[in-house]
Specification:
Number of strands of chain B: 9
Oligomer: heterodimer
Strand order of the largest sheet of chain B: 5-6-7-3-8-9
Strand content of chain A: under 5%
Largest interface: A-B, 20 and 22 residues
CATH superfamily of chain A: MetI-like
Structural class of chain A: mainly alpha
Helix content of chain B: 25-40%
Order of helices and strands of chain A: HHHHHHHHHH
Largest sheet of chain A: none
Largest sheet of chain B: 6 strands, mixed
Structural class of chain B: alpha/beta
Number of helices of chain A: 10
Radius of gyration of chain A: 20 Å
CATH architecture of the largest domain in chain B: 3-Layer(aba) Sandwich
Number of helices of chain B: 9
Chain lengths: 231, 243
């Protein structure tokens, strides 16, 4: 146990190239997915919040339900779509970081959209009538309410980042956990634990926790600073 | 701003589910100056204002604003709570101008003029939500003023303000009316109604029970419902009714 810990910290202190490469790929995949998920999920959630259309409650229910989609099932569906015989097989994305980004994007879009819908709907209760009285249409009202709730939306995006970087099922299925190519922190931790390379698994686990904490703390600090500056 | 803006309401009804809110309001409001709407809580004042603005659709009856051969008038609505976005004071005024299709230069000029008009020129860059309650309501009025509306609707705009801030708001509203904007004001503050309005409509249980010049209506109401409201003797204030 002591030797394992010693080896873990030695690898971390030496900035083990394998650890750095795996952590870098994980960050690249999850940040890309959360970026894409934000671009899709926030406007989607806001539009559902401000628009009146038949079936809105059903759409809201579907978004909320989709927050809990099992990552491995998302990975499986995407695998079928991206496999050579699948409809998107021609893209040649399977077992690439691109497929992993796509899988995590599908994973986080419902989460971001559902949380954004709730946040914007709460703001709409206070501001909606005022904005409608100004003659603003749904798209413009959604944009204004996104801006108004931007500090709260950071929390939703953080939650999505936490879900993306810590999931294993989707990236394992569509990425294949290929050494030096599609191996992320979570897939590597799982594999190295099974192989018995506990120092590497533990080092990656500590890096994973550190990344989540640093990203969360940075976002929280920026959020509180921005709230102080802009109300 | 138009000076010929009568509001004619006939048989106006509004209900939420099985609950009737307005029960067939008939009233005709003069084309200029300030008209006050008063009445007990739940009488339907705020709903009537929202129906006039088009925020709600009536379940019966009609509202006609201005001559039928002219385009619909521009309106602005100031609510009891100012409804400001987490952005600068100037940005809050600018967003009210977005639907008007103005050029950037004219929009910026109107924003500056509106903030100057309400005495907030120095606070243009300040976060709107950091302004005091009185300043926030002045900003809400600046947003309305910038749109140069034909019709200004006010729903208890000074309910949460101290007397000094209320007087500033009253002066601004009065100046808009003098400049030609038709103002319809909902208020529980009878002193304010007396100071600002030329005529007053009394609502009770979703009906317009009285409409007349402000002084005579407030001092000598003709209808029993208006008399009960003005003397504070509503049915639920009676001990007998409660027991």
């Amino acid at each position: 146990m002591f030797q394992t810990l010693e080896e873990t910290f030695r690898r971390l202190a030496a900035l083990d190239p394998e650890v750095v490469a795996i952590a870098g790929l994980s960050l690249r995949v999850s940040l890309s997915a959360v970026g894409l998920g934000t671009l899709v999920g926030v406007p989607l959630g806001a539009l559902v919040a401000v628009s009146a259309f038949p079936g809105r409650r059903l759409v809201t229910g579907c978004l909320n339900a989709a927050m809990g989609l099992p990552p491995v099932v998302i990975g499986l569906v995407l695998y079928l779509l991206l496999s050579r015989s699948g409809p998107l097989g021609g893209l040649g994305l399977l077992f690439t970081p691109g497929a992993m980004i796509a899988a995590q994007t599908v994973l986080v879009v419902p989460l971001i959209a559902a949380l954004a819908r709730q946040i914007v709907a709460d703001a709409e209760e206070h501001l909606g009538e005022q904005l409608r009285s100004l003659g603003l249409g749904p798209a413009r009202r959604a944009a204004i309410l996104i801006y108004d709730t931007r500090f709260s939306l950071v929390t939703a995006i953080l939650a999505a980042f936490g879900r993306a970087i810590s999931e294993i099922g989707a990236v394992l299925v569509v990425g294949g956990n290929i050494d030096g190519h599609t191996r992320t922190m979570t897939t590597a931790i799982s594999l190295e634990t099974q192989k018995g390379d506990l120092p590497l698994a533990l080092a990656l686990g500590l890096v994973l926790i550190a990344i989540v904490l640093v990203v969360s703390a940075t976002a929280t600090l920026l959020r509180s600073h921005a709230m102080r500056a802009y109300g | 701003m138009s000076a010929a803006l009568p509001i004619v309401i006939e048989g106006l009804r509004y209900r939420v589910g099985d609950m009737p809110i307005l029960n067939g309001i008939d009233m005709s409001v003069t084309s200029s100056g300030i008209t006050a709407i008063i009445g007990a809580n739940g009488a339907g004042k705020s709903v009537l204002l929202r129906l006039i603005d088009g925020l709600l659709a009536p379940t019966g009856g009609t509202i006609r604003i201005g001559p039928s051969d002219r385009p619909p008038p521009s309106t602005a609505f100031v609510f009891q709570r100012p409804g400001l976005v987490r952005a600068s004071a100037a940005a809050n005024v600018a967003l009210a101008l977005a639907p008007l299709g103005l050029g950037a230069g004219e929009r910026a000029e109107r924003v500056r003029a509106a903030l100057r008009h309400v005495g907030l020129a120095e606070r243009a860059g300040a976060p709107a939500t950091r302004l005091s309650g009185g300043e926030q309501q002045r900003l809400a009025l600046a947003r309305a003023w910038a749109r140069a509306p034909d019709l200004l609707l006010l729903d208890e705009p000074t309910a949460n303000l101290d007397p000094a801030s209320s007087h500033v708001i009253e002066d601004l509203v009065a100046s808009m009316a003098v400049a030609g904007t038709k103002v319809v004001l909902v208020s529980h503050n009878l002193g304010q109604v007396m100071r600002l309005a030329e005529d007053v409509v009394v609502l009770a249980a979703g009906l317009a029970v009285e409409h007349g010049p402000v002084r005579s209506t407030l001092s000598s109401p003709r209808s029993p419902q208006a008399r009960a409201y003005l003397t504070g003797e509503m049915p639920w204030t009676s001990f007998a009714a409660l027991s």
